[in-house]
Design goal:
The protein is an alpha/beta fold. The protein has helices at about 40-45, 70, 90-100, 105-120, 135-145, 165-180, 190-195, 215-225; strands spanning about 1-10, 15-25, 30-35, 55-60, 60-65, 75, 150-155, 185, 200-205, 210. The strands form two sheets. A six-stranded mixed sheet has the order 6-7-8-3-9-10, with helices on both faces. Strands 2-1-4-5 form a four-stranded antiparallel sheet, with no helix packed on it.
């Protein structure tokens, strides 16, 4: 569960205030809105990567507003992936577990289990160079999920992928939800993406949150068309 209460942030001329929303446990929520409306700012604040001026962030009922990113136990998939060129796929999956001082046996078991779930077992000894866009995205997802977070935050994870790879990723996200029970917050600019993935859509318009459930997605599509393509 993710809860944002009376969220407010200001830097330079940008300002958001009085933002509140609730995402139930195990739900898949997409966050939409025009460029510059604050999508990534909100996502980074939830992860602890950006400081808020006011309000509270709760994860499973626990107030994490003042906790460091590493203490929030949130998996984060940045827009650019940010894979390290010198590290193998296996080392990427092991990274967060070594920081948390898991035993070698437990790390090996978790990495193998996650690699099988993501279909990247054959890539474990490879480095990022030469991997396809879809393969890289699976590795980035694996790194974010390896320590079994309750919440997964994704910043436009499919924006650079071709249509066929996107279809594969839609299926993979479904598998991940079923197997892990993670609560997801996914920034998107695509109505196709949200229609295939989301239980809830939060649309930022004029500094306010508009909430849509699946039976209201036709209204969401109309809003996207009238408001201009959110990117």
């Amino acid at each position: 569960m993710i809860e944002c209460k009376d969220y407010g942030i200001r830097f330079g001329e940008f300002k958001l205030s009085d933002i509140s929303f609730h995402i139930p446990a195990e739900a898949y929520c997409c966050l939409m809105g025009k460029t510059g409306c604050g999508k990534t700012t909100i996502l980074e604040s939830i992860c602890g990567l950006r400081s808020m001026n006011r309000g509270d962030i709760l994860i499973d009922g626990v107030n994490v507003t003042k906790l460091k990113p590493s203490q929030r136990e949130i998996g984060f998939v940045p827009q650019d992936g940010a894979l390290f060129s010198t590290m193998s796929v296996q080392e990427h999956l092991e990274f967060a577990l070594k920081i948390r001082k898991w035993s070698k046996e437990r790390i090996a078991s978790q990495v193998q289990e996650l690699a099988e779930l993501l279909g990247i077992t054959h890539l474990l000894k490879r480095k990022p160079y030469g991997l396809s866009g879809g393969e890289k995205q699976r590795v980035v997802l694996g790194r974010a999920l390896t320590f079994r977070p309750k919440v997964l935050c994704l910043d436009e994870p499919l924006s650079a992928l071709d249509d066929q790879t996107k279809e594969e990723m839609y299926h993979l996200f479904g598998v991940i939800r079923k197997e892990t029970g993670v609560t997801a917050l996914h920034i998107s600019h695509s109505f196709e993406e949200v229609s295939k993935l989301a239980d809830i859509v939060l649309f930022i318009k004029d500094g306010k949150i508009i909430r849509f459930l699946p039976d209201e997605f036709s209204k969401l599509e109309e809003l996207i068309r009238s408001d201009g393509k959110p990117v």
